[in-house]
User: Fold this.
Amino acid sequence: MTDWRSIFGHAEPYDEQVDGIETTIDTARDDGYTVVEGACGTGKTMIALTAGIDLVRDPETD
Assistant:
């Protein structure tokens, strides 16, 4: 697994973002889907971008 924290766009992620990013990465590697629901400003877009970039940059990911 790559270090997604180096991709993350802010100084520190919220605890919920850490869980969301790691869950999204793990689920994508298992060919699954992740649904993220949250209020405005909770970091849903940052979760998706961080997980997606991490997966694209990881040479072990298809």
Observations:
- The chain has a mean pLDDT of 93.
- The longest helix spans residues 15-29.
